[in-house]
Design brief:
This protein has 360 residues and is α+β, with helices and mostly antiparallel strands. The chain has eight helices and 15 strands. Helix content is 22%, strand content 28%. Strand 4 and strand 5 (165-172) form a beta hairpin. The longest helix is centred in the first third of the chain and has 18 residues, at 38-55. The structure holds zinc ion (2 copies).
Amino acid sequence: MADHYEALGVSRTATQDEIKKAYRKLARELHPDVNSDTASQERFKSVTHAYEVLSSPESRRDYDMGGQNAFGGSNFDFGDIFGSFFGNGQRGPKSRVERGQDALLRVELTLQEVVFGADKTLEVDTAVLCETCHGSCCQPGTAPTVCDICRGAGQIQRQVRSLLGNVMTSAACGSCRGYGQLISSPCVDCRGQGRVRARRDIELKVPAGVEDGLRLQLSSQGEVGFGGGPNGDLYVDIVVRQDDVFGRSGDDLTCTLEVPLHDAVLGSVAKIETFDGEQTVEIHAGQQTGDVITLKGKGVTHLRNSGRGDLRVMVQVLTPTKLDSKQKELFKALAALRSQEQSRLVKQSHGFFARGKGRG
Ligand SMILES: [Zn+2]
Ligand SMILES: [Zn+2]
């Protein structure tokens, strides 16, 4: 086994402080996060082992006397030692600055807004940067002080006895909660958080053609983090309100047009109110229930390319009720003239839209 003093590059008479300093310097150079090559890692292990032995006066004495009691066992667990010094891989004090949380909002749209797209104003209630301390968490003119308990390390090391001998363990410093620094005069406006809650409005351009349930991501529009850390993202869930008249099928709009029997028989022109204003629908003579009349390009604007879907108008022929006696006589006369026609079973059709497609 290599000499521990040599490994650390210190003399045999080095003070505990010199040993610590030498180790910190080497650990910074050889740390696996910095140097991943095998040689550096091997050296880092032996340097760390040397430090663990020499940093405790007790095990150093044992080592000087030629004993290997401190870590002489073959079951030496490098991971434990590594973790104990670095706080399980964490080097030095933890940062007060954290990324902010994501925020989630809902925006409700009418179908008309989906067809053409919409500009919406959203009220966002999130944490924003404290303008008094600009995220430093300190009263203006003051600064954090180094924690006198852990001396800025953020970790407290303790020697504990174990089956392997004395080992060093470390835990977050209770005085500074691991930050290594204390804020003696916290900013009053944010109570030392570096951020405050505020409402603000943001303008959201909702593209045409979005679907119910779609989630839009606005990066860095979420909460400011603790200590003035970077913003999280803002997510906006799209909720589309049901329309009383129009439905949506892909990028087509659908609706049902009730047509009086005589118009369906003789043909007619109907005016319908759409998202594009009043439109004319031509009813052919002999138009049937279930026939679909297509108004090209009057549907939903495509989300990802130009153009629009169609408006599909499904015809529903109304059977007249509440006939007066004269109308009843006329239907009876008509029935007599068409007496060869009778009700009959027909081959099953698959839904309303299976029939009459493309006859518009
Ligand atoms: Zn503040
Ligand atoms: Zn501390």
